[in-house]
Amino acid sequence: MKVKINIKQMEKKGRRIKPIPFEYAGCPATAEELIEETVDIMLDAFKKKMERSAAEEVEGPLSEETISAMAEMGKVAFGFIYNDKTPDRDEAVETARMAYVDGLVRIFINGEEAEYQEGGTPISLSEGDEVTFVRLAFLAGRMW
Fold this sequence. Notes:
Layout: E1 2-11, E2 14-23, H1 31-55, H2 64-73, H3 89-101, E3 105-109, E4 112-113, E5 130-135
Parallel strand pairs: 1-5
Antiparallel strand pairs: 1-2, 3-4, 3-5
């Protein structure tokens, strides 16, 4: 099943949210299953990126346009992954689940929030739906 995941894009002309198609093996029945399958997809993509990073060599210097776009994002890099340690799948899934349970991450399906429910949050996904994961960040500082 193909689902569009809304991902924040860091572009030169503003930060935009762009739907990226994700291919799921089945149809997740709960938000927890959706999180688990999404983590699996992202881990597979990360591992493929690690393999490409290890096999490729730098083809030349970065262009000025590429450097300025990366500088706006806050990090200029060649895209290599220097740490060769592969992430633990179970630990990554548990971390993502706990973030959802604790309210640090919210899930929206076609604009409707999938609020956490004890014992599993039932969701209804169909082909072409849009899913958005929102990570809540707390502001630091003092209140006077």
